[in-house]
Amino acid sequence: MKTIAINQYGSADEFTMVDMPTTEPQADEVQVAIHAFSLNPMDIAGRMGALSSPFTDLWAFPLVLG
Questions:
Q1: 42, 51 in Cβ contact below 8 A?
Q2: What does the alpha-carbon distance between residue 57 and residue 59 come to, in Å, rounded to a whole number?
Q3: Are 15 and 39 in contact, with CB atoms under 8 Å apart?
Q4: Among 2, 4, 3, which Cα is nearest to 46's?
Q5: Integer Cα distance of 28 and 26 in angstroms
Q6: pLDDT digits (tens, 9 = 90+) for 29-40
Q7: Tens digits of residue pLDDT in 5-50
Q8: With 80 as the cut, is the pLDDT of residue 53 above it?
Q9: φ/ψ (deg, to 5) at 18
Q10: What is the DSSP letter of 24?
Q11: If DSSP codes are grouped into helix, strand and coil, which group holds residue 5?
C-alpha cells in the first residue's frame, strides 16, 4: 500500500511516498480503498514541526498522514 508520510521535520515542500504493508482487517473492522487524498494545513504544520502537545504526544516517524 502506498501512503504519504513525514520522515522528519522540515520544509513543507517535502512529503514522502512510502510503501507500507497491507494489513488484514479484524472481525470488527472494514477495509476501504482510497482513490484520492489531500493535504491540509495541519499536515503542513506537522511537517514543519509547528505543532505541539497534544498533537505530537504519540507521534513517531515515519508519521503516516490521514
A1: yes
A2: 6
A3: yes
A4: 4
A5: 5
A6: 998 888 888 888
A7: 888 888 877 788 888 888 899 999 998 888 888 888 988 888 888 9
A8: yes
A9: -125, 140
A10: P
A11: strand
Grid cell 497491507 in the structure block, residue = 22
Please give the Cα distance from 14 to 65 (Å, whole number): 13
- The pLDDT of residue 66 is above 80: no
Q: Which amino acid is at 55?
A: F
- E strand or H helix at 62: none
Residue 4 phi/psi, 5° resolution?
A: -100, 130
The CA dihedral of 37, 41, 46, 47, to the nearest 10 degrees, is: 70
Residue 62, preceding peptide bond in cis (omega within 30° of 0)? yes
